[in-house]
Structures are given as C-alpha cells and as structure tokens.
Amino acid sequence: MVQQTPVRPLGAPGGGALIDEDWEALRFRVHRSAYREPELFQQEIDRIWNHTWLYLGHETELPRPGDFKTRTLGGRPLIFCRDSDGEVRAFFNSCTHRGTVLCRHSEGNTKFFQCFYHAWAFSNSGELAALPGDDAYPDDPGFRASMALRQVPRLQIHEGFVFVAFDPDVPDLLTHLGAAAHYMSLTAKIGPHGLTTLPGVQLYSVKGNWKLAVENAMDGYHFAPTHNTFVGYLRETGFAVTDDDQYAYDLGGGHGLLVLTGHNGRIGMVWEPRFGDEEKARTTAKRQEMESRLGTELAGEIADASRILFVFPNLLLFDLEALTIRQLEPVAADRTDVRAWQFVEVGEPESVRALRIKTMVSFVGPGGLATPDDIEAYEAVQRGIVATANPADPAHDWSDMSRGMANEKQGNQGRSIDEGAMRSFWRHWASVVGVPTSVAGAPPTVPSATGPSRPKGE
Ligand code: FES
Ligand SMILES: [Fe+2]
Fold first, then answer.
1. Which InterPro entries does the protein's record reference (predicted)?
2. CB of 208 within 8 A of CB of 231?
C-alpha cells in the first residue's frame, strides 16, 4: 500500500468547512482556497492521485510492438509502451541505478531504453539488459532481476482505455468506473471495426486549478454566454441550438455525465447543415448499420444524444461534434497540463476523417471556437479568486454552485444547465481528500429521471 500522509484539518481559514451545502437554504458553495492552497494541492496528490485509478492513455496509441509514449501522472514521469510481445505496460520513467529519467523522448519505437547517465539499458518489457562494466557487480542473476525497471503496480484496460494505479490495493478498475464504464462502452461501439486514436496529441498548459477544468466540462450553463460566437455561427448555418431536454447525471464515485440532445450535430450521428449533403446520406446509412449491428434501442442511446463524460479524476470523453479524449494533469494549485487526442472510427472514408478533424479543431481544439473561451474562463477564475482571499473578510471568498437545487429538491432530474454535476464531483472530492464540509439536510437521493437516456446502474 502506498503510504498515505495523515489527514490534516485543511479547510477554510480557521479550519472551517471548504464545502457548505444546505438543502433548507438551497445553498451549495465551495471555499475558494480549494483552488489556491499549495498545501491542499499536495494533499490531493497524496490522497487522490496516489490512490485512485488514473487514465494513462489509449492502447491504440501504441499500434506496434516497441511503440512508447512518455507521460506524467500525478507528477510521476511514466513510460507507456507496448513490449516486443505486444503487451501494454507502464513503467516508472526512472532508471533503477540512480533515478535519472530513463526515456527523454516524448514518443518513439524501441526494443531498449538506455539511460544516458551510465548507459544501463532496459528491454521494453523492463528487464535490465545491459550495464557497462558489469564485472564490478555481483555475479548473481538475482542482482540483475532486482534492478529491473519498476512497473506501475496496477494496469487495467476497459474498451482500450488504459488506466494505472500507484496503489496496488485499489479495487478493480470496473469497480472504480461503476456506471461510467457503460458510457465508455457506448462510445467504443460507434464503429463496426472499433475506434482508434489519431497520431499526435494536443498539449497545452492552463494557468488554473485542475478542478476548474472539471467544472467547466460539467457546466452546460456557460455554453450559450461563453461560446456565443460559436452559437451564432451554428444559427447562421441553419442549426438551432437548444438547452431543452438536456440532463446531468451523478454516476457515483465522482464521475459525472452530461447528456445533450440539442447541443449541436455530431459526425455520423446527428447531422447538421454545416456537415454537407454527403455526410447527411452517410449519417442515415450509419444509423441503419448501427441498428442492425446493435439493435434499435442501443443504437438510439449511442446516436441520439451527445455526451460529455468525466471519469474521476483525470479523464474527459467528449462524444460531441467529433470524438475527443482529454486528460488532465495537475501541476500546481494554479497550473494544469492538458492532453487531448482525436478519436475516430477505424476504416471510415478519408472524406469523413477530414470532416471529423475539421469539426473537432473548429470547436474543442485548442484553437477552436470553444476551448480557448473555456481556457480563458478558468484562467480568469484563477486570477479572480485571488481578489477575495482575505481572512479578514472570509464571507466573500466562496464560489456558488447552487443552481438547480430547488429543481432537484422537487425530485426532478438535474439539467445540464444546472450545477448538480459539479456538486456531486465536489462531494466526492471532499470525501477522498478528507477536508471539512458542512452539510445541512440531505440531497434528494433518487431523482426521477425525465431525460432521454437514463444512466444504467442507478
Ligand atoms: S542513473 Fe541510469 S545508468 Fe546510472
Ligand atoms: Fe465550454
């Protein structure tokens, strides 16, 4: 078991609650120190990143034996690779001799990783293959075996999504994923021949706390005002965007889901005029293909609504517009690295592939009509909350997330334009990180779903 640091009473100034939830007053607010404090950030790394399944990458990023990527999770440099026998592996990217970062390339293909410092070399399945001057070491196979590259203790794969955990005692991946596993499977079923990531990654660094990125993805409320340029563009092309009949779901375990019916079109699933007539005919044929392969009900569940899935703590799956996988890596309390991959159907025509990429970059790409707005929004939050950090006036250092509580209290399913998905994320976060909370009354336990696509397993 990875050692846990003891829970310290980190909270608002004076040790007060960081989350204030009151179902009589219909109030839910988060103390802004939760986004700011370096000590709390370190506690998140200790208690979340060191003890939870983390999304590492997709197995299609490593199509050939010997392929590797280097990646950092929870601050730990890792090697994500496919060994010469085809097995997907994750190693700590640290030479077992004296700890040097072993592989200093971001990606490539190799049979061996050689350390530049004293030239020890490791096979892509982790064995110590060569060390210069080995006559100065014990003539004992046990010595070499003890110097094998250290594997990350746990690695499991669901629908090609590769997760790792630094704590060997975490429950199985499917237990961790819970209801979220179903939504990953829905996306994976889109293509008759499966899905694959495209080569290349969009990597950008945001001057904001990682939880602001989660909030932003689970926040349908900001869509129309923040992305009004994009909404205007869609209207001009003849597509009416609506917030009606769109819902937010608490999937448990900190995972969240937005199901969006009127958001905008989606390649191969929901046609809109900007996709062109050729894509219109293909969308109709695609629906028939899915219905015959999967049945009418499942095909409808996959095709009829866009989805944004958050898998606690670091994976976002955008099954909207096109398909995008996004990974969050917290760097500091006020800094987050983001990686994003385009996810496509295996075997789709080149023209569709081109349309998909164009659609993706025009919206959720780092230069698109949505993502720069979102980044500016959460960087602006990070800048703004410095203004209210004032122990002499603590009453104004809170962020409000109460939208939709009155609706939920009446037993209605939360809407995507409310803030229920954020509330469930923050509740789980507080329980894992072990910070003080103040709760008055109980949240409604079984809301009646009126949405088109009620999550399984509720
Ligand atoms: S630290 Fe890697 S070979 Fe010495
Ligand atoms: Fe947005």
1. ARHD_Rieske_2Fe_2S, Rieske_2Fe-2S, Rieske_2Fe-2S_sf, Ring_hydroxy_dOase_asu_C_dom, Rng_hydr_dOase-A
2. no
